[in-house]
Amino acid sequence: MVLSCKGESIDTSLPSDGEGPEIPDSEEVIPVNISETEKQDIYLGIDAERLWYWKNYIKDELADLGVKELQSKFVRVAINCKYEREKGVKDETAYTEDILVMMEAMKKANPNIEFFASPRPLGEAYTKEEKESIWGHEKNVPWSPVPAWIMKFKQNGTKKIDGVEVPKWVDGELDLDALIQYYADYLNYMGSKGFKITYLDVTNEKPIVNPAQVKIMNEQIRSKLDPGVNMPKLIGPSSWNYKRGIAWINSINTGNGEVNAIDILSTHNTNEEGSREDFVKKAQELGKAPWNTEVHGWIGIETKDEIMNSESLWNHFRAGFVGMSTWLFYGPFSGKNHSMIWAHWQDGRIIKTTKYEIFKKVVNNVNGGKYVDIDMPNSAVTAAFIKGNILSVWILNKSQDDLKNVEFRLGSRKIKGSSIEYTVWNENLPKYGSSKELTKTTRNSFRQTIGAESLYFFKVEVE
Question: Which three-class secondary structure string do you get for the chain?
Fold first, then answer.
């Protein structure tokens, strides 16, 4: 069998015994060893917390792309400050306009989908005019994941925004009892609408609660739930970056039950300050699964950027993260950096981006599986996973030169059959890439030249 790769003809024929051609000792290869030791679980979902570009008129199509065609484990959804922006005054349109429509569509597309609730920023609960009249300027709403009556902001002098003198708002003392009731009311409301919330963010980027307060939340939220309403697993702190997440973890008192109150330790990488590896290590030391509940960095509108910036995803797997959620999954038809699905506001057109096609291959082949260590050649980033008898191998060549004769070595794992399916992405290919087959080299190895600035996915069936 002869395969063509970037204009080169490569003879990959197997001898009749199926062992594969012998490798001459003099032939230079780039060895990539794949460990036989299974590591962390993999649990992947999508973000629908921000619905800026969600369109109800194509809700079923959008939901199918998010949780059916893409076999996500969970959807991150918003706890909307608008629902009770002022204490005791509840506005159901905060949920009925878009959020419940989206959740119904997700549940229809995938009855097993899990919902992960995360508090959405206060600023989105106001119109431009309300921001100006209540807070002094449209850019002056305090940063908060919960309503102002829970955070109790205070004025501390003035400042200038765009040359306009406005009040300077500072945090007051958090009303923990009010926060507990606020979350319980949300869970009860969702329960009344037929939705089980599996995961609950205790905060969103701003560290409004500490581990001692989370312990109280865990104890008291469940006592306020209506019969039959699920007490979700608590996730936190979903910090702005790794550094802040590590600081929060370090404040946990391991001797008084605080560590048992939080189920999953989470971060974002809104910026990259700190170390993802250190965050993972801290979580693992406490026996908790490390999640990134808002993965940033995998951005791009042009195909090449979408491919090359996938490095952020692979680095998270390599660091040891278990759970991961995209950010701003749904975007505008004109394109947006983080978004994987771009939808037209009116005519029904939808673009499945290169990011989407890559992520779909990851999710549909490894969700619920395990990560395995894999060597990383110079100028490349790699990741590997095992789920059942499917070994998924990924390699991103960041170099402007081909990586010639890369040999992937599976250890004692044996390749079933003679051929291996693979998909390649580069800037000259369609968004869904190009799928081909190659022939294994031996029972437990295969070779491929990895094209410059390209991403490869090998789907290897093992015995």
Answer: CEEEECCEEEECCCCCCCCCCCCCCCCCCEEEEEEEEEEEECEEEEECCCCCCCCHHHHHHHHHHHHCCCCCCEEEEEECHHHHCECCECCCHHHHCCHHHHHHHHHHHCCCCEEEEEECCHHHHCCHHHHHHHHCCCCCCCCCCCCHHHHCCEEEEEEEECCEEEEEEECCCCCHHHHHHHHHHHHHHHHHCCCCEEEEECCCECCCCCHHHHHHHHHHHHHHCCCCCCCCEEEEEEECCHHHHHHHHHCCCCCCCHHHHCCEEEEECCCCCCCHHHHHHHHHHCCCEEEEEECCCCCCCCHHHHHHCCHHHHHHHHHCCCEEECCCCEEECCCCCCCCEEECCCCCCEEECHHHHHHHHHHHHHCCCEEEEECCCCCEEEEEEEECCEEEEEEEECCCCCEEEEEEECCCCCECCCEEEEEEECCCCCCCCEEEEEECCECCEEEEEECCCEEEEEEEEEC
